[in-house]
Model the fold of this input.
Amino acid sequence: MSIIDIHTHPVFFNDGIKPAETRLMIKHARQQGIEHVVSLGDVLRYGRTPKSEHLRILNDETAGLIQRSRGFVVGFCYVNPLLGEKAVRAEVDRCVGEKGFRGIKLELSCNATNPAMAGVMHAAREHGVPVLQHSWNQLYKSSRSFHSDPEDTCALAKEWPDVRIIMAHLTGSGFRGVRAARGLDNLVVDTSGGGPENGLIEYAVEQLGERRVVYGSDYPIRDFPCCINRIKGADISARAKQRLLHDNAAELLGL
Ligand SMILES: [Zn+2]
Done:
């Protein structure tokens, strides 16, 4: 089975930036049956609210990876909503419009319910690309102003039903995050984040359906074999495994 990994950081705090390192990453990925990885960028190198010049550096690195890998790497455009709609739009136009990136990545600049998100959603809608939002259980934590809880990401999806949202980190979102995502047809959850948790993949497929769960690893924070085999070893149908590991991502990315 060929596999698409929708959540990786081939460059992570500058590691992986050299061409030899890219080749090694691709070799490891191919050994696991992976045919494409989505690079979300080295998102925290400049802190959680990067400036426009920082975003250009990070997104240009992703463009370099796409070129060097001859399309093995698929790019998502990393943006900071707090820079305002004009700046967000310029970077999305540059990366998605000119360089062929296939999605938008949001990390920790602001919470998914911040009004500044409108600029990102307008850009995503016009370019017809999905938005991958970092999400992790944030109840009772003071960092909620910038760190999106799964319920915040689900609220975003509810507010923008014509934009496709990828809620990152099934493990970080947990059973509660899956419950929050029920009935939101424009939202899929990626399976990255943390070690495998017994029953969680099965629960997500049961509650959301096999079209709304998509494989991601968060490489190099997590390794490919562990993240793939948590799906291959799950108690779900062969057809559902095919959907999670390949077909859903192929549809989201237009591959
Ligand atoms: Zn990540």
